[in-house]
C-alpha cells in the first residue's frame, strides 16, 4: 500500500515500464526492429524526479526495487521519461468530465471526428417525436 501519491504514481510508472519492456522483448524475439527507445509521458513531476535522481531517499525504502529498476533504465538510456502537463493528458477524455474546447482538442489528438449523420438522425427523431 502506498503512503503518498508520489509512491503510488512511481509504482504505477514502474508497472507500465515493465509491461512496455516485456512487449519490446517480444517484438525483438519476433525480429521486428524497434525504431527508438520508449518515451513515457507522465504528469507527476515527483515520480519523474525519482526516476532520474541518483540519491536514494529513506522514506521510499519500501519501493527500492522499482526505484532502482526505473532509475537504471533511465541512466543507461533504455527509456526516456518526459513531463506532460495534466491539462494535456489525452486519456482524461475517457475518464473525466472535460470542457467542450478541451474535448474537441483531445478528439483531434485521437484523430476522431464527429459523425454528422448521427447528429442529423438524432435531430430527425426529435422532430418526429415533437410532431406526434
Structural notes for this entry:
With 132 residues, the chain is mainly alpha-helical. The protein has 6 helices and 2 strands, in the order αβααβααα. The protein has a two-stranded parallel sheet. Helix 1 crosses helix 2 and helix 1 crosses helix 3. It starts with a helix and ends with a helix. The mean pLDDT is 75.
Shape estimate:
extended
Largest sheet: spatial strand order: 1-2
> H/E element string?
HEHHEHHH
Q: Termini, distance in Å?
A: 59 Å
Oligomer: single chain
Uncertain runs are none
Radius of gyration: 21 Å
Q: Roughly what fraction of the amino acids lie in strands? A: 5-15%
Structural class: mainly alpha
Tell me the total number of β-strands: 2
Compute the average pLDDT.
Answer: 75
Biggest sheet, in brief?
2 strands, parallel
Helical content stands at 55-70%
Number of helices: 6
Give the gist of this structure.
The protein has 132 residues and is mainly α. The protein is 57% helix and 6% strand.
Amino acid at each position: 500500500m502506498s503512503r503518498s501519491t508520489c509512491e503510488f504514481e512511481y509504482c504505477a510508472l514502474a508497472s507500465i515500464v515493465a509491461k512496455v519492456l516485456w512487449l519490446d522483448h517480444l517484438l525483438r524475439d519476433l525480429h521486428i526492429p524497434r525504431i527508438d527507445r520508449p518515451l513515457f509521458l507522465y504528469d507527476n513531476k515527483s515520480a519523474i524526479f525519482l526516476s532520474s535522481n541518483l540519491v536514494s531517499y529513506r522514506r521510499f525504502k519500501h519501493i527500492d526495487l522499482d526505484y532502482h529498476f526505473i532509475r537504471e533504465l533511465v541512466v543507461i538510456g533504455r527509456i526516456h521519461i518526459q513531463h506532460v502537463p495534466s491539462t494535456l493528458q489525452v486519456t482524461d477524455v475517457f475518464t473525466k468530465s472535460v470542457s467542450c474546447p478541451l474535448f474537441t482538442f483531445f478528439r483531434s489528438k485521437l484523430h476522431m471526428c464527429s459523425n454528422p449523420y448521427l447528429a442529423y438522425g438524432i435531430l430527425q427523431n426529435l422532430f418526429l417525436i415533437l410532431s406526434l
